[in-house]
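Repro:
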Amino acid sequence: MQARDAVVELISREGLKVGDKLPSEAELTIRVGVSRPTLREALRLLEQQGLVRTEHGRGRFLSAASALTVTRPITTYESNTQMLEELGYRPSTTVLSVRAATAGEDAAVMAALQCPADLPILFIERLRTDGGSPLIYSLEAVPRSFLPQDLPHDRFASSLNDLLALQYHRPRMSTASISAVMLPAPVGRAIGWTRRDPWLLITETCFTEDGAPVLYARLYHRGDALSYNFSRR
Protein backbone atom coordinates (compact mmCIF):
# COMPACT_ATOMS: atom_id res chain seq x y z
CA MET A 1 0.00 0.00 0.00
CA GLN A 2 2.92 2.35 0.63
CA ALA A 3 4.22 1.55 -2.85
CA ARG A 4 0.74 2.19 -4.27
CA ASP A 5 0.65 5.59 -2.58
CA ALA A 6 4.14 6.35 -3.89
CA VAL A 7 3.01 5.59 -7.45
CA VAL A 8 -0.01 7.87 -6.99
CA GLU A 9 2.29 10.65 -5.75
CA LEU A 10 4.57 10.12 -8.75
CA ILE A 11 1.57 10.35 -11.11
CA SER A 12 0.53 13.63 -9.48
CA ARG A 13 4.06 15.01 -9.44
CA GLU A 14 4.55 14.21 -13.12
CA GLY A 15 1.21 15.79 -14.02
CA LEU A 16 -0.03 12.69 -15.85
CA LYS A 17 -3.56 12.97 -17.23
CA VAL A 18 -6.33 10.54 -18.20
CA GLY A 19 -5.10 8.32 -21.02
CA ASP A 20 -1.41 8.95 -20.33
CA LYS A 21 0.86 5.95 -20.21
CA LEU A 22 2.62 5.11 -16.96
CA PRO A 23 6.39 4.61 -16.94
CA SER A 24 7.55 1.03 -17.42
CA GLU A 25 7.78 -1.38 -14.50
CA ALA A 26 11.57 -1.19 -14.62
CA GLU A 27 11.50 2.61 -14.37
CA LEU A 28 8.84 2.66 -11.65
CA THR A 29 10.79 0.12 -9.62
CA ILE A 30 13.76 2.48 -9.56
CA ARG A 31 11.80 5.69 -9.02
CA VAL A 32 9.55 4.29 -6.29
CA GLY A 33 12.39 2.34 -4.69
CA VAL A 34 10.72 -1.05 -4.29
CA SER A 35 11.18 -4.55 -5.66
CA ARG A 36 9.48 -5.66 -8.86
CA PRO A 37 7.01 -7.98 -7.03
CA THR A 38 6.03 -5.17 -4.63
CA LEU A 39 5.55 -2.77 -7.50
CA ARG A 40 3.36 -5.23 -9.38
CA GLU A 41 1.20 -5.69 -6.28
CA ALA A 42 0.91 -1.89 -5.96
CA LEU A 43 -0.16 -1.62 -9.61
CA ARG A 44 -2.66 -4.44 -9.09
CA LEU A 45 -4.23 -2.42 -6.25
CA LEU A 46 -4.49 0.62 -8.53
CA GLU A 47 -6.18 -1.54 -11.17
CA GLN A 48 -8.64 -2.85 -8.57
CA GLN A 49 -9.45 0.75 -7.63
CA GLY A 50 -10.11 1.49 -11.29
CA LEU A 51 -7.40 4.14 -11.46
CA VAL A 52 -5.14 2.27 -13.88
CA ARG A 53 -6.01 0.07 -16.85
CA THR A 54 -3.71 -2.41 -18.57
CA GLU A 55 -3.57 -2.88 -22.32
CA HIS A 56 -1.69 -6.09 -23.05
CA GLY A 57 1.29 -5.44 -25.25
CA ARG A 58 1.05 -1.66 -24.79
CA GLY A 59 1.40 -0.98 -21.06
CA ARG A 60 -0.57 0.68 -18.28
CA PHE A 61 -2.60 3.85 -18.67
CA LEU A 62 -4.45 6.24 -16.38
CA SER A 63 -8.19 5.54 -16.54
CA ALA A 64 -10.95 8.12 -16.57
CA ALA A 65 -11.71 7.20 -12.95
CA SER A 66 -8.34 8.63 -11.92
CA ALA A 67 -9.76 12.11 -12.57
CA LEU A 68 -12.53 11.56 -9.99
CA THR A 69 -10.69 12.91 -6.98
CA VAL A 70 -12.42 14.21 -3.88
CA THR A 71 -11.19 15.79 -0.67
CA ARG A 72 -11.29 13.42 2.30
CA PRO A 73 -12.93 10.48 0.47
CA ILE A 74 -14.97 8.26 2.74
CA THR A 75 -13.44 5.27 0.93
CA THR A 76 -10.02 5.97 2.45
CA TYR A 77 -9.17 3.69 5.40
CA GLU A 78 -7.40 5.63 8.13
CA SER A 79 -7.46 6.09 11.88
CA ASN A 80 -9.92 8.57 13.35
CA THR A 81 -7.12 10.56 14.95
CA GLN A 82 -5.30 10.85 11.63
CA MET A 83 -8.51 11.91 9.92
CA LEU A 84 -9.21 14.62 12.51
CA GLU A 85 -5.65 15.95 12.32
CA GLU A 86 -5.82 16.22 8.55
CA LEU A 87 -9.12 18.12 8.89
CA GLY A 88 -7.26 20.70 10.98
CA TYR A 89 -8.34 19.61 14.46
CA ARG A 90 -5.97 19.02 17.36
CA PRO A 91 -7.65 15.95 18.83
CA SER A 92 -7.11 14.39 22.19
CA THR A 93 -8.47 11.01 23.24
CA THR A 94 -10.11 10.21 26.57
CA VAL A 95 -10.61 6.57 27.52
CA LEU A 96 -14.04 6.42 29.15
CA SER A 97 -14.01 2.70 29.94
CA VAL A 98 -12.36 -0.61 29.11
CA ARG A 99 -14.17 -3.74 30.15
CA ALA A 100 -13.91 -7.44 29.47
CA ALA A 101 -16.97 -9.46 28.47
CA THR A 102 -17.89 -12.18 25.99
CA ALA A 103 -19.03 -11.75 22.41
CA GLY A 104 -22.45 -13.15 23.28
CA GLU A 105 -23.26 -9.89 25.06
CA ASP A 106 -23.68 -8.20 21.67
CA ALA A 107 -25.11 -10.11 18.71
CA ALA A 108 -23.71 -7.54 16.27
CA VAL A 109 -20.20 -8.14 17.60
CA MET A 110 -20.58 -11.91 17.17
CA ALA A 111 -21.79 -11.50 13.60
CA ALA A 112 -19.15 -8.94 12.62
CA LEU A 113 -16.19 -10.76 14.16
CA GLN A 114 -17.52 -14.19 13.12
CA CYS A 115 -16.80 -15.57 16.58
CA PRO A 116 -18.50 -17.81 19.16
CA ALA A 117 -20.55 -16.38 21.99
CA ASP A 118 -17.99 -17.33 24.65
CA LEU A 119 -15.03 -15.56 23.01
CA PRO A 120 -13.47 -13.00 25.42
CA ILE A 121 -13.87 -9.48 24.06
CA LEU A 122 -12.59 -6.08 25.20
CA PHE A 123 -15.15 -3.30 24.85
CA ILE A 124 -13.33 0.04 24.63
CA GLU A 125 -15.26 3.29 25.04
CA ARG A 126 -13.46 6.48 23.98
CA LEU A 127 -14.10 10.14 23.27
CA ARG A 128 -12.12 12.34 20.90
CA THR A 129 -12.29 16.06 21.52
CA ASP A 130 -10.75 19.29 20.31
CA GLY A 131 -10.33 21.96 22.94
CA GLY A 132 -12.75 20.06 25.15
CA SER A 133 -15.45 19.97 22.47
CA PRO A 134 -16.65 16.43 21.57
CA LEU A 135 -16.02 15.25 18.01
CA ILE A 136 -16.24 11.44 17.99
CA TYR A 137 -17.64 9.03 20.55
CA SER A 138 -16.68 5.42 19.89
CA LEU A 139 -17.42 1.98 21.27
CA GLU A 140 -15.06 -0.62 19.85
CA ALA A 141 -14.94 -4.39 20.34
CA VAL A 142 -11.73 -6.39 19.92
CA PRO A 143 -11.01 -10.07 20.70
CA ARG A 144 -8.99 -10.06 23.92
CA SER A 145 -6.25 -12.27 22.49
CA PHE A 146 -5.64 -9.80 19.65
CA LEU A 147 -4.19 -7.21 22.04
CA PRO A 148 -1.16 -7.41 24.36
CA GLN A 149 -1.93 -8.57 27.89
CA ASP A 150 -1.87 -6.21 30.88
CA LEU A 151 -2.08 -2.98 28.90
CA PRO A 152 -2.41 0.00 31.25
CA HIS A 153 -5.66 1.93 30.96
CA ASP A 154 -4.05 4.98 29.39
CA ARG A 155 -2.51 2.95 26.54
CA PHE A 156 -5.98 2.61 25.05
CA ALA A 157 -5.86 6.32 24.27
CA SER A 158 -3.36 5.49 21.53
CA SER A 159 -4.19 4.01 18.12
CA LEU A 160 -5.99 0.67 18.30
CA ASN A 161 -4.52 -0.07 14.88
CA ASP A 162 -1.04 0.21 16.37
CA LEU A 163 -1.97 -1.88 19.41
CA LEU A 164 -3.39 -4.60 17.16
CA ALA A 165 -0.20 -4.48 15.08
CA LEU A 166 1.80 -5.50 18.16
CA GLN A 167 0.03 -8.88 17.94
CA TYR A 168 0.23 -8.99 14.13
CA HIS A 169 -3.44 -8.08 13.63
CA ARG A 170 -3.17 -4.60 12.09
CA PRO A 171 -6.38 -3.62 10.22
CA ARG A 172 -5.90 -2.68 6.58
CA MET A 173 -9.45 -2.23 5.31
CA SER A 174 -13.03 -2.13 6.47
CA THR A 175 -16.67 -2.29 5.54
CA ALA A 176 -19.00 0.30 7.01
CA SER A 177 -22.48 1.73 6.99
CA ILE A 178 -23.37 5.33 7.79
CA SER A 179 -26.61 6.88 9.00
CA ALA A 180 -27.82 10.05 10.67
CA VAL A 181 -28.97 9.44 14.24
CA MET A 182 -29.54 11.27 17.48
CA LEU A 183 -26.83 10.68 20.04
CA PRO A 184 -28.17 8.12 22.56
CA ALA A 185 -29.20 9.86 25.78
CA PRO A 186 -26.86 7.78 28.04
CA VAL A 187 -23.92 8.67 25.77
CA GLY A 188 -24.90 12.34 25.80
CA ARG A 189 -24.96 12.33 29.59
CA ALA A 190 -21.61 10.53 29.75
CA ILE A 191 -19.86 13.10 27.55
CA GLY A 192 -21.79 16.17 28.71
CA TRP A 193 -23.62 16.76 25.41
CA THR A 194 -27.07 18.27 25.83
CA ARG A 195 -27.86 19.56 22.34
CA ARG A 196 -30.45 17.65 20.30
CA ASP A 197 -28.91 17.54 16.84
CA PRO A 198 -27.99 14.67 14.49
CA TRP A 199 -24.72 12.79 14.58
CA LEU A 200 -23.31 10.45 11.93
CA LEU A 201 -23.24 6.85 13.12
CA ILE A 202 -20.58 4.83 11.31
CA THR A 203 -20.82 1.13 12.03
CA GLU A 204 -17.58 -0.47 10.89
CA THR A 205 -15.90 -3.88 10.76
CA CYS A 206 -12.14 -3.80 10.19
CA PHE A 207 -10.12 -6.57 8.55
CA THR A 208 -6.48 -7.58 8.24
CA GLU A 209 -4.77 -7.83 4.86
CA ASP A 210 -5.83 -11.49 4.58
CA GLY A 211 -9.48 -10.67 5.33
CA ALA A 212 -9.73 -11.70 8.99
CA PRO A 213 -12.13 -9.50 11.05
CA VAL A 214 -10.33 -7.96 14.03
CA LEU A 215 -12.34 -4.94 15.17
CA TYR A 216 -15.99 -3.91 15.32
CA ALA A 217 -16.86 -0.31 16.06
CA ARG A 218 -19.79 2.02 16.50
CA LEU A 219 -18.53 5.55 15.90
CA TYR A 220 -20.68 8.62 16.48
CA HIS A 221 -19.27 11.57 14.50
CA ARG A 222 -20.59 15.03 15.36
CA GLY A 223 -22.76 16.03 12.41
CA ASP A 224 -22.10 19.77 12.48
CA ALA A 225 -18.31 19.31 12.68
CA LEU A 226 -17.51 16.41 10.34
CA SER A 227 -18.55 15.55 6.79
CA TYR A 228 -17.31 13.12 4.13
CA ASN A 229 -17.10 12.92 0.35
CA PHE A 230 -17.14 10.06 -2.14
CA SER A 231 -17.01 9.30 -5.83
CA ARG A 232 -19.14 6.66 -7.56
CA ARG A 233 -17.89 4.58 -10.46
